[in-house]
Automatic annotation (TrEMBL):
Protein family: Belongs to the mitochondrion-specific ribosomal protein mL53 family.
Protein name: Large ribosomal subunit protein mL53
Keywords: Mitochondrion, Ribonucleoprotein, Ribosomal protein, Transit peptide
InterPro entries noted in UniProt: mtLSU_mL53, Ribosomal_mL53
Subcellular location: Mitochondrion
Keyword Oxidoreductase in annotation: no
One of the record's GO cellular component terms: mitochondrial large ribosomal subunit
Top-level taxonomic group: Eukaryota
Residue ranges of the region described as Disordered: 108-131
Length: 131
């Protein structure tokens, strides 16, 4: 089972990006039972591979000792907010939901691919021709 979780986490790390995300706030009480999923998600999202996708994303950690239910607040660049009450969600479920929302709001998703034609390739050659 642990191998499957690691493999699924690796899958999300390779595909997840934070391009449309402005801020992520993790709020939890470390002494409650249902805090493992939010801690695991925070450590996964804090990996260099994911952080490099948007270096402007602010990650805040609000650690409390007042029996606060764990939650993740995500604020997007367009002003939308997403709130996860994570007490009954697993680590992989949270990553899956985050991936779905982030991929939907990806600004690069709607860009058209660059079309390369023969005439544009000829202009790019340096010193082409016979010698």
């Amino acid at each position: 089972m642990a191998f499957a979780v690691r493999r699924a986490t690796t899958y999300f790390v390779k595909r997840l990006h934070l391009r449309p995300v402005k801020q992520i706030k993790f709020t939890f009480d470390p002494y409650t039972k249902s805090v493992a999923s939010v801690r695991d998600t925070a450590s996964t999202l804090h990996t260099p591979e994911i952080l490099e996708t948007n270096q402007g994303t602010v990650m805040k950690f609000d650690v409390r000792s007042d029996k606060t239910e764990p939650r993740i607040d995500i604020e997007f660049n367009d002003g939308h907010k997403l709130v996860f009450e994570t007490s009954n969600l697993s680590h992989l479920e949270i990553l899956d939901y985050i991936y779905e929302f982030v991929d939907e709001k990806d600004p690069k998703k709607n860009e058209a691919p660059e079309i390369v034609t023969k005439s544009s390739k000829v202009g790019q050659k340096k010193g082409g021709g016979k010698r």
